[in-house]
Design brief:
The chain is α/β, with parallel strands linked by helices. It is built from nine helices and twelve strands. The chain has a single domain, classed as Arginase, Chain A (3-Layer(aba) Sandwich). The strands form three sheets. It has an eight-stranded parallel beta sheet, sandwiched between helices. It is globular and about 60 Å long.
Length: 331
């Protein structure tokens, strides 16, 4: 069976209100957005495919992001009331209309406990399957090391720019022999010949990267801004620093947000970005450039018993996916 979806009017692709069944957010299975669960990775037929990467063995301090994909999926059901799309009165636009886009959740990559190369290879395999289906991959982490296999999966594709939202530069080359931890993904990305540059936003305070890492980042084509620099410049000026029209891959570390709204993460750093700052930046990016992939990482739900961090993650993803799809015909 290629796909698990409801045929009684409850599925996310149908109108729940014609059958008299509500399928409220707290009912049923927790796929992302309550989108259909597609189990056959060789027959993906979708515009957007969500993949979980519940791996957190790359962390240097507090683990727990392996439970991030599950928490984000559950939180995403809050936004699954089935109105045929999400109407935004400020933009006067309906995002993710169910009669125009097909959205699926393909489950999780297989994680092999303590085996980083195999776990990363399995994540890369899932992203490659999504790309082969010409769908937009949206990956739910896991720690930030899962970005490494995500970027690896684009080998052979045209060049693209990486936009990172994060408290940390993540540009460590090697630490105690480790090259594939969650402090290294942007260094590994910058080494790829098909990554044409990086814009790293939100970098602040005491970082996981030493001074030489910052020097290397500049040398290897990175443009990075702290939260204070971002606010002084403003969203429009920051967008001008990102090459317009060039394909972009977006990686969002939840610790890029201030821990007052995102405490559920392994490495919280005060002085972070707020919701609308990130949304306006990414909405502007979607208007200017084709977005070819998204990951959101480092949600560790055990450190936030209110669930607000996972809700924030689901909300920003829903809004960004909606805007990417809304503007994709421009490119």
């Amino acid at each position: 069976m290629a796909s698990i979806s409801r045929t009684d009017g409850l599925g996310a692709q149908g109108n729940r209100y014609e059958t008299g069944r509500l399928d409220l957010p707290f009912v049923g299975l927790c796929t992302f957005g309550k989108w259909p669960y597609h189990v056959d990775w060789d027959s993906i037929d979708a515009d957007v495919a969500v993949l979980g990467a519940p791996y957190d063995m790359g962390t240097q301090w507090r683990a727990g992001a392996r439970f991030g994909p599950r928490a984000i999926r559950e939180a995403s059901t809050l936004f699954s009331f089935g109105h045929g799309g999400a109407y935004d009165h400020e933009d006067d636009a309906v995002y993710l209309p169910i009669d125009r886009f097909r959205l699926v959740d393909i489950g999780d990559a297989d994680i092999v406990h303590t085996d980083t190369p195999k776990s990363h290879a399995n994540i890369e395999h899932g992203v490659r399957k999504i790309l082969a289906a010409r769908a937009l991959p949206v990956v739910l982490g896991g720690d930030h090391s899962v970005n490494i296999p995500c970027i690896n999966a684009f080998e052979g594709h045209p060049g693209f720019h990486v936009v990172q939202i994060d408290a940390h530069l993540d540009f460590v080359d090697e630490r105690h022999g480790v090259r594939y931890g969650h402090g290294s993904p942007m260094r590994r990305a910058a080494e790829k010949p098909y990554v044409t540059g990086l814009t790293q936003i939100g970098i602040r305070n005491v970082s996981s990267t030493a001074r030489e890492g910052y020097d290397d980042a500049r040398r290897m084509g990175s443009d990075f801004l702290s939260v204070r620099q971002f606010r002084r410049a403003g969203v429009d000026a920051v967008l001008e620093r990102i090459p317009a029209g060039r394909p972009c891959y977006v990686t969002i570390d939840i610790d890029g947000f201030d821990p007052s709204i995102a405490p559920g993460t392994g490495t919280p750093s005060h002085g972070g970005l707020l919701y609308y700052e990130v949304l306006e930046l990414l909405a502007g990016l979607a208007r200017r450039s084709p977005v070819i992939g998204i990951d959101l990482v480092e949600v560790a739900p055990d450190y936030d018993h209110t669930g607000s961090t996972a809700i924030l993650a689901a909300q920003i993803l829903m809004n960004v996916i909606g805007r990417v799809m809304h503007h994709r015909d421009r490119f």
